[in-house]
Amino acid sequence: MIAFWISAAGLSAAAGALVLRSAARAGATQGVSPDLDAHKRQLGEIDRLAEGGLLDEAEHRAARAEAGRRLLAAADTAETWTRDGAGPRRLAVAVAAVAPLLAVAAYVFIGSPGFSDQPFARRVAEWRATDPAQLDPPRIAAVLETLAAQRPNDAEPLKHLALARSASGDLAGAEQALRRAVRLAPGRADLWTGLGETFVAQANGQVTGDAQVAFREALKIDPTSLSARYHLGRGKIGDGDLAGGLADWRALTADLPAGDPRRGAMNREIAQVEAAGGIPAPEAAPEQSAQVQGMIAGMVDGLAARLASSPDDPDGWVRLVRAYAVLGEVAKRDAAMASATRRYADQPKVLAALRQAAQTPPQQQTAPGGDRQ
Question: What is the value of pTM for the model shown?
Answer without folding.
Answer: 0.49
